[in-house]
Predict the 3D structure of the following.
Amino acid sequence: MKAKTIKRVLRAKIDEWLASIEDASLRKQLGEQTIVTGGAIASMLLQETVNDYDIYFRTMDTAIAAAKYYVEKFPGYAIHGISVKHDDGRVRIVTGKGYRGETAGDVRTLQDSGEIEESYEEAENAAIAVDDKPKYRPIFLSTNAITLANKVQIILRFWGEPDAIHENYDFVHCTNYWTSWNDDLILRPAALETLLSRELRYVGSKYPVCSVFRLRKFIKRGWSINAGQILKMMMQISALDLTDPLVLEDQLTGVDSAYFIEIMEKLKEKDPTKVNTAYLVEIIDRMF
């Protein structure tokens, strides 16, 4: 797909999403602060189907405003104590109780610990268009993101200018981006080079464990990766204490597997001083 076509598609998609927002002030704010980056642009360049459009915001205030708007649109949010918190430069969604959310007529129980678990791809794939429901209704909440029907995912964990957002990205081919305030599409030469060759180039990430799991998806799609890129992931992972439940949970953010949710629940029941590599291996083998 040509760049001008991608711009037109993104502009139309974002305009349609913005038109669904009932709050005129918020609609204007989001229209001036939205960044689309990640896999959607890569898929369009490769003429592949877009799985979802990842939306980020330029400022923390805008991320908070968007989060509050959609939390209040989520069924039963007040009853179950779902709210938006922001501290230490981070925006997150929390809940005080177990909660069940919409996933195509089915339900999913969220953690009692207060953090809503995520399964973005599962929620989006399960979303079925229903004529009498809003086209961009929230169908799944996680600690770090809000999944809307019709392939839109609002990312809350990271915000800022595109370069700052991409500091948290793992593979360079996902770093092309579009900005709403000037309708500008930036295609980075390094990203285009890796797209043409379908070669994964690891640029470093705050979440290298998640990057390893993402490898499976790309390899299934015919991408390649050299040993040096994998070594870079291993070097970053070696600096992490994955026997610390908080570190492990943070690293598994965004990994689409219900089994990992169960693993974290088991770990939270265990005395932290007794969690070691042997115990983790036993739990992992049991769950999988």
Confidence is low (pLDDT under 50) at residues 97-130. The chain has twelve helices and eleven strands. Residues 55 and 165 are 11 Å apart (CA to CA). The first strand starts at residue 34 and ends at 37.
